[in-house]
Design goal:
single chain; globular; 47% helix; Rossmann fold; binds nicotinamide-adenine-dinucleotide; alpha/beta; 6 helices
Length: 152
């Protein structure tokens, strides 16, 4: 069984991915800055199925599965040291990267939204790769199905 970090693990793709990997017996840690929840509040929208907050979701998973999910609230686009240090400490063998602003329509709302999206998504991936190199981790990075083998 592996130690796996799911970046963007509070999101649409990330949460079920984290649960599946945890159910398979892997040791799973989620990193997410909860920006998707902030965007939903900004847009005044919510899911048809209410989405509980992270502590409640993690507690529910523990109740039904007996398994523990770790969670860290880190903005991986802007807290490089936080990301690097968390990865060095957890020492994952695999990182699954979903931590992006996903919506093209949101990115086109204004100049600010466009710059926010590019800054967030480009920096997040760049910081991830830099953190893998700097921490010396021998880790498999999966970015939405695109695999990269890092060796420090
Ligand atoms: N939803 C789909 O059907 C689908 C299909 C193919 C590809 N994708 C891609 O997968 C990725 C995730 O999509 P999703 O639908 O799960 O989106 P989502 O918005 O539901 O999830 C993304 C998560 O990443 C987090 N996040 C964003 N920026 C972050 C940052 N700087 N630091 C830490 N956390 C951050 C958000 O808070 C959110 O929880 C996107 O790149 C999307 O384009 C999605």
């Amino acid at each position: 069984m592996a130690r796996i970090v799911v970046l963007g693990g509070d999101g649409f793709c990330g949460w079920p991915t984290a649960l599946k990997l945890s159910a398979e017996g892997h040791q799973v840690a989620i990193i997410d800055n909860l920006s998707r929840r902030r965007i939903d509040a900004e847009l005044g929208v919510e899911s048809l199925t209410p989405i509980a907050d992270m502590p409640e979701r993690i507690a529910a998973w523990k109740r039904v599965s007996g398994k523990t999910l770790a969670f860290a609230n880190i903005d991986i686009a802007h807290d490089y040291e936080g990301l690097r240090d968390y990865l060095a400490d957890f020492a994952p063998q695999t990182i699954v990267h979903f931590a992006e602003q996903r919506a093209a329509p949101y990115s086109m709302k204004s100049s600010w939204h466009k710059r926010y999206t590019v800054d967030n998504n480009v920096n997040a991936t760049h910081n991830l790769l830099a953190a893998v190199v700097e921490s010396g981790l021998d880790v498999h990075v999966d970015d939405q199905g695109i695999s990269i083998q890092g060796n420090g």
